[in-house]
Amino acid sequence: MARRQKGRPVNGWVVIDKPLGLTSTQVVGRVRRVFQPRKVGHGGTLDPMATGLLPIAMGEATKTVPYIMDGAKTYHFTLQWGVATATDDAEGEVIERSAHRPEPAEIEAVLPQFLGLIEQTPPIYSAIKVAGERAYDKARAAEVFTLEPRRVLIAGLRPIAPPDPALSGPAFCSFEAQCGKGTYMRALARDLGRALGTCAHVVALRRIAVGPFTEAHAISLESLEALGHSAADSGAVLPIETALDDIPALALTETEANRLRCGQAVSMLARANRERIRDFTNGAIVYATSGGKPVALARYEAGDIRPVRVLNV
Question: Is 47 one of the annotated active-site residues of the chain?
Answer without folding.
Answer: yes
